[in-house]
Specification:
Elements: H1 6-9, E1 22-28, E2 31-33, E3 36-38, H2 40-47, E4 52-59, H3 76-90, E5 98-105, H4 115-125, E6 129-133, H5 159-169, E7 174-177, H6 184-193, E8 199-201, H7 217-232, E9 237-241, H8 262-280, E10 285-287, H9 300-310, H10 316-330
Parallel strand pairs: 1-4, 4-5, 5-6, 6-7, 7-8, 8-9, 9-10
Antiparallel strand pairs: 2-3
Helix pairs in contact: 3-4, 6-7, 7-8, 8-9
C-alpha cells in the first residue's frame, strides 16, 4: 500500500473529539503536480472528515504561476488561482467552511523596494490577500533540502531582502517565516528591526531531526527552547503550531506501514506544543494542519484530534484562541 495515500490513511480511524468547536485552519496548500493533486475536492474531503472547520488560510507553494510573465510577476498567478477557489467556497455551495478566506502569497523580497509593485498587484487581485511567505529555510548539509525559493545563507540579514521586507508594513501585510531551527536567532534580529510588521512563525521554526541533526533531539530541543523563549519576547511575533511531523523533523511516521494515531502524535510531539503555548500564550498561538504536507504522517481528522487532546485541560478561552481566534485575528478573517 502506498504511504500517504487516502487508502493508507484510512487504516486509522478515530471518533472525533469536540466536533462542534469552530476551527480556522491557518495553513494549507493547493496544488496540481504530476504525482500529487490537492485541489478543492481533495481539501473538502479533509475538511469534512469530522471537525468543524469554518475558515482556512492558503499559504504559498509555487502553485499555478503565470506562464510568460516576467519572473517577479509570475507568483501573481497563484493569487488569481486561489482567489477563484475562495470565491467558489464563498458561494456557500460547498458547505460552511470559507476556504482560503485569507491568502498568503509569494513575492521575492530580494527585489528590494521594487517588490512594492508586486505586493500592490497581489492586493489588487484579491481583497483576501493578507501577507507573503518568502521561505528562507537553509542549511549547509546536503541532506537537508533547502526551501523551494532557493534561499542563500543568512538571507534574513541580506540588505536587498531587508529593503523588500520594509514594504510589508506600509501595506498592512504580514510575513510568514519558514526557516530551520538554527536560523531562529536571525529571525529574532529581524523581528527587532521591524517591530511594526507582524511575523507569523511557521511550523515551530523547523526543528530538524534528519541528516546531521538525527539522534540529537534532546540537545536540539534545549537549544530550540532558548531561542523560542527569546522570540516570544517580541510582541510582533505569533506562532503556528503544526507542521511538526514532516520527514525533516525526524519522527519517522511517514515510513510506517500504519499512519500515526492521535495518541502517538501527542506522545511524540506534545512537549513542543506545550512549551510554545506556555511561552507565547494561547492568544499568540494557532493550531495549523500544514496539509497536504503532513498527510505523509497522519490523517486530517487524527491530527486535529491530537491537537484537542494536547489542550484538553485548557480553559475555554485558551481553546478558542488556539483553534480559532488567534488565526482569525492574525489574518484578519471576520
Amino acid at each position: 500500500m502506498t504511504k500517504g495515500t487516502q487508502q493508507w490513511l484510512d487504516q486509522v480511524t478515530e471518533d472525533i473529539i469536540d466536533p462542534d468547536r469552530p476551527i480556522c485552519d491557518p495553513h494549507h496548500h493547493l496544488w496540481d503536480h504530476a504525482n500529487s493533486r490537492y485541489l478543492l475536492d481533495q481539501l473538502l474531503l479533509d475538511l469534512r472528515s469530522g471537525h468543524r472547520i469554518v475558515s482556512t488560510v492558503f499559504v504559498e507553494c509555487s502553485s499555478m504561476y503565470r506562464a510568460g510573465a516576467i519572473e517577479a510577476m509570475q507568483p501573481l498567478g497563484e493569487t488569481e488561482f486561489v482567489n477563484g477557489i475562495a470565491a467558489m467556497s464563498a458561494s456557500g455551495q460547498y458547505g460552511e467552511a470559507r476556504v482560503c478566506a485569507g491568502i498568503v502569497g509569494y513575492a521575492d523580497l530580494t527585489l528590494g523596494h521594487e517588490v512594492g509593485a508586486v505586493l500592490d498587484e497581489h492586493l489588487r487581485l484579491s481583497d483576501r490577500f493578507r501577507g507573503i511567505r518568502h521561505a528562507v529555510g537553509w542549511d549547509a548539509s546536503p541532506q537537508i533540502r533547502n526551501s523551494h525559493t532557493n534561499p542563500s545563507e543568512q538571507l534574513l540579514s541580506d540588505e536587498r531582502f531587508l529593503k523588500g521586507f520594509s514594504e510589508l508594513a506600509k501595506r498592512g501585510l504580514s510575513f510568514d517565516a519558514w526557516l530551520y531551527h538554527p536560523q531562529l536567532e536571525e529571525l529574532i534580529v529581524l523581528a527587532d528591526l521591524f517591530e511594526d510588521t507582524i511575523i507569523i512563525l511557521d511550523h515551530f521554526g523547523g526543528p530538524l531531526g534528519i541528516g546531521p541533526y538525527a539522534n540529537q533531539r534532546p540537545a536540539i530541543f534545549e537549544q530550540w527552547k532558548r531561542d523560542i523563549k527569546a522570540l516570544a519576547k517580541r510582541p510582533n511575533v505569533v506562532a503556528k503550531l503544526g507542521g511538526l511531523v514532516m520527514p525533516i523533523n525526524g519522527f519517522g511516521f511517514h515510513k510506517r506501514d500504519l499512519p500515526a494515531t492521535s495518541d502517538e502524535l501527542v506522545a511524540s510531539t506534545q512537549a513542543y506544543y506545550r512549551y510554545m503555548i506556555d511561552t507565547f500564550g494561547a492568544d499568540r498561538c494557532m493550531f495549523e494542519s500544514n496539509f497536504p504536507v503532513d498527510k505523509q504522517s497522519c490523517s486530517y481528522a487524527v491530527l486535529w484530534n491530537a491537537f484537542k487532546k494536547m489542550v484538553a485541560d485548557g480553559s475555554e478561552s485558551e481553546k478558542n484562541g488556539l483553534f480559532h481566534e488567534t488565526a482569525s485575528r492574525a489574518y484578519r478573517i471576520s
